Amino acid sequence: MEVQEPKSRIFIFSHPPSASSLLKKMLEKHPQLHVLDDSFNMAYTLGPEKLERRDRGDACDSESRRKMSREETYQKAFDRLHKSMTRAEQEGRRPLFIEDAYMIFRPDVTSANTQHDLSLTAIPTPVIMTSKTMPTNFRCPLRASRSPQSSNSPLFTATFPIFHPITEGLGIHTIESRPPNTNPTVLPDAFLKSMTPICLIRHPARTFPSLYRGARPTHNVYGSEFPINASIRWCKLLVDWYTVATGTRAIVFDGDNLIHESSTIAKVCRALSLDESGVQNSWDAMLREEIGEQDAMTSAMNATIQTSNEEDRSRKRDDEIDIDEEARGWGKEFGLDVAEAIKALVAGAMDDYLYLRQYAIN
Fold first, then answer.
1. pLDDT score recorded for residue 151
2. Contact 196, 189 (CB under 8 A)
3. What's the per-residue H, E or C state across the chain?
4. Cis ω for the linkage preceding 217 (within 30 of 0)
5. Cβ atoms of residues 285 and 41 within 8 Å
6. Which intervals of the chain are annotated as region Disordered (predicted)?
7. CB neighbours of 248 closer than 8 A, spacing ≥ 6?
8. CB burial readout 142-166, b (16+ within 10 A) else e
9. What is the pLDDT of residues 291-314, one digit of tens each?
10. What is the Cα gyration radius of the chain?
11. How far apart are CA 168 and CA 59, in angstroms?
12. Closest to 104 measured CA to CA, from 51, 176, 31
């Protein structure tokens, strides 16, 4: 595998809740960095191009959050992110972009890689234009339903179609043609290639029940959205795409190591040419009003880290997990039917987790 110098921009992608909130806390005051997280959350959950396959209901979000999201397209979120990155670089800091991978994945890709039937919730793919001459409100009117094209690389165990934004008939003649995106997200290839990729994972038996715990009562474990959230496939597809597209594998590390081993963050800093002294291992707990402005699921999943002032190393390690034993606990908490559904999702995600874990920094 080719070894390259880390790019200035950093992209951390994960599946919730994989200790990304802990990582953010540790790095958010680093003098070399400008942390940008949840850039596409409102576009995914509430905006006019929302990709979330459920009705959240008014109880999930504050009125101010709903009002802010009414015109929050993926294009607007991308433009704001790109502007913030550029400004950070002008100030001499390195942009650090943190996002749950599923929030930026194309809906045709998530449908093709989810065992549940999503045919009734098919939705169009948002299009992000990088040229200033393109209309910012343009949205692809059709699903990207091209015939799947398998990668020549054996790394891809799931396929997704190459996406060609539809530009014919727009009446714009100043746009230079550009190659189609080959990556599985709505973001441009060039943008993804401009960053050093880091994949953060966590054992699904630790994360999936926590995800469900935070998502109740509006998240149905049998619905179309939960299997997308409770999946490590999106991280795997991005890692594989980076390997094929750039010749360099993404840096992978396990959230369990981040929690229990202080050397993990030090190794990440060295890989990114960051000064280790800029990492904070304690912080102020968030104020109640700050937590109140979050959506309900984010607040519930991040409750431990947001109301604490340091990382919690008291829980047993993930490699000590007995899934059957954990499932009995889920049954007592959620009911037997829900516990069995979560256990099935955990079992279905283990291959992807173990595949990525073999590359994890330890």
1. 37
2. no
3. CCCCCCCCEEEEEECCCCCHHHHHHHHCCCCCEEEEECCCHHHHHCCCCCCCCCCCCHHHCCHHHHHHHCCCCHHHHHHHHHHHHHHHHHCCCEEEEEEEHHHHECHHHHHHCCCCCCHHHCCCCCCCCCCCCCCCCCCCCCCCCCCCCCCCCCCCCCCCCCECCCCCCCCCCCCCCCCCECCCECCCHHHHHCEEEEEEECCHHHHHHHHHHHHCCCCCCCCCCHHHHCCCHHHHHHHHHHHHHHCCCCEEEEHHHHHHCHHHHHHHHHHCCCCHHHCCCECCCCCHHHHHCCCHHHHHHCHHHHCCCECCCCCCCHHHCCHHHHHHHHHHHHCHHHHHHHHHHHHHHHHHHHHHHCCEEC
4. yes
5. no
6. 52-72
7. 1, 2, 3, 4, 242
8. eebeeeeeeeeeebbebebbebebe
9. 445 455 555 555 554 445 555 555
10. 20
11. 41
12. 51
C-beta of residue 242 within 8 angstroms of C-beta of residue 250: yes
Q: Count other Cβ atoms within 10 Å, centred on residue 96.
A: 27
* Cβ proximity of 66 and 57 under 8 Å: no
pTM for this entry = 0.80
Q: Quick one: pLDDT at residue 144? A: 33
Report, as an integer, the average pLDDT of 320-335.
95
Give me the residue label for tokens 């874990």: 357
pLDDT, tens digit, for every residue of 257-269?
Answer: 998 888 899 998 9
Evaluate whether 339 touches 324 at the Cβ level (below 8 Å).
no
